[in-house]
């Protein structure tokens, strides 16, 4: 039996890499972690019952684990896409995946916000391909020492390329998640550093008021110093020498558009995560 199942352990390791932790997976499917390690290391094969349980956890059939690794990877990605996306948006992402490839990598993302009047917010973002989808993750890290406010916001979502535009739909991480939507113009022929567009969301310091504002994404490449990237996140005065001229000129040409009259920000001492 070992010869026909020569690909099992490699494919199982690949499948497990899509989970947060192997221990969590073992608890979920009810298989002892030490026994599961033997499967991962190729020391033994699972019983028919355990094999069926493992395959079901990944939305696969037992025989799929003996496929050549490249074929298995494709099938695993296909199953994950179907599991992650259902309903009317199932076919919306990623649109033209080939067109998105030049945009994969890290960005410094700038925008104005109702939550921080007269300031420009700098965040960092990452676009990466995974299983046929383009995942986007964004981090905002703001410390307002004057008002004692510390804000840590994380967003995760999907990207799509359609009608020569880049659409980003993100969900905030936390107990009460909300959505954000960003639409970016692609690179120009002779300008391949900045993406300009519009971002929409709600302002936590203005009673969750919906608003839209301009945004600029500065492309930094596929490999960056992540610590340095995150350290630049924060809020900046418009006269800060840190702001690139292309960012400042685009963002200060227009103010955020709110769904209702904007009142003074709430005196929160700490932002929600």
TrEMBL record:
Top-rank taxon: Bacteria
InterPro entries given in the database record: Cro/C1-type_HTH, Lambda_DNA-bd_dom_sf
Gene3D superfamilies: lambda repressor-like DNA-binding domains
Domain HTH cro/C1-type: 21-65
GO molecular function: DNA binding
Coiled-coil spans in chain: none
Pfam families linked to this entry: HTH_3
Protein name: Transcriptional regulator
Organism from which the protein derives: Mesorhizobium japonicum
């Amino acid at each position: 039996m070992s010869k026909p199942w020569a690909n099992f352990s490699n494919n199982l390791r690949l499948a497990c890499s899509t989970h947060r932790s192997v221990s969590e997976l073992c608890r979920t499917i009810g298989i002892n972690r030490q026994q599961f390690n033997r499967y991962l290391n190729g020391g033994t094969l699972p019983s028919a019952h355990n094999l069926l349980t493992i395959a079901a956890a990944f939305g696969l059939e037992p025989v799929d684990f003996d496929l050549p690794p490249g074929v298995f990877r494709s099938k695993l990605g296909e199953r994950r896409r179907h599991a992650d996306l259902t309903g009317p948006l199932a076919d919306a992402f990623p649109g033209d995946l080939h067109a998105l490839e030049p945009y994969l990598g890290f960005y410094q993302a700038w925008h104005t916000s109702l939550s921080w009047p007269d300031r420009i917010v700098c965040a960092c973002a990452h676009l990466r391909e995974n299983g046929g989808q383009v995942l986007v993750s964004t981090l905002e890290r703001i410390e307002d020492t004057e008002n004692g406010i510390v804000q840590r916001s994380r967003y995760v979502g999907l990207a799509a390329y359609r009608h020569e535009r880049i659409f980003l739909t993100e969900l905030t991480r936390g107990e009460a998640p909300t959505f954000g939507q960003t639409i970016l113009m692609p690179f120009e022929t002779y300008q391949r550093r900045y993406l300009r567009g519009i971002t929409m969301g709600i302002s936590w310091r203005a009673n969750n008021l919906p608003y839209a504002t301009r945004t600029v994404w500065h492309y930094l490449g596929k490999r960056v110093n992540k610590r340095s990237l995150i350290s630049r996140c924060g809020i900046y005065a418009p006269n800060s020498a840190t702001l690139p001229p292309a960012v400042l000129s685009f963002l200060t040409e227009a103010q955020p558009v709110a769904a209702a009259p904007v009142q003074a920000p709430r005196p929160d001492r700490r932002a929600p995560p």
